[in-house]
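Action item from last week, closing it out:
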Amino acid sequence: MTTTAMLHTAAELNALPGGRTGAAVPQSATPRAVVMTMGALHEGHATLVRAAREQVGAAGQVVVTVFVNPLQFGAGEDIDRYPRTLEADLAVAELAGADIVFAPAADEVYPGGEPQVRIAAGPMGERFEGAARPGHFDGMLTVVAKLLHLTRPDVALFGQKDAQQLALVRRMARDLDFPVGIVGVPTVREPDGLAMSSRNRFLSAGDRTTALALSRALFAGRDALAASGHATPAAVRAAAMAVLDAAALSPDYLSLIDPSDFTEAAGEHRGEAVLAVAARVGTTRLIDNIPLTFGEPQ
């Protein structure tokens, strides 16, 4: 098993064999993958770490970042409530095969305080989760950009569970010419179908049972499409919504989304789509999604 180093500064990271000490990364440098987290690691994160190892091979470096980013917490979102379990996170990362856990302090990431210049997510970041959490994606993209500069990876891995985040990171890397590959990793689920999330720990036993309606709704939409290759986006949404209605769960949104720009898929949509749902279960807001393909894969 890999012995995982705990580092807190970019200087420590760069001092390691394979560290990036200059502005450019030489072709002979040790390949590096990064998995960015806010801690409270679970099997979903461990899956990302294992996928990162596959990307860079046994000789590469896998870096897991643990940083609770203040920029992506909005009004009414209590950053102090977010779980901080650094010792346990190190154990999870080590067992999954990470070489490094990079856990910087806020002044390492934002020297001098909150940055005056930030990355704006634009219209793509104002829909769905962006509408529910104004400014969240600006803060997310800013810290992702910062951590990409600090860790200087060849590839960065993100979970498909946060589909809008993944789409925005991919768009940022493309639009701003970040020299890094962005890889999406499928959502990891509990045996009963609930998507793994650090927020699940806040669910009561009753709330957790109710929360299963989210994944069941998505699977119902998927099954409606599979049962008829000609199912329309409206029919898929209706099949999913019927499950939520039966559970008396009113979603913030249940949408079939074009992943290229995160707009609602048109009635004649063909190609890839994301069926996404968000809802508050008890006091905990949960999100989930599944990828779908309408028509022949493109």
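Closing note: The domain at 198-294 is CATH 3.30.1300.10 (Pantoate--beta-alanine Ligase; Chain: A,domain 2).
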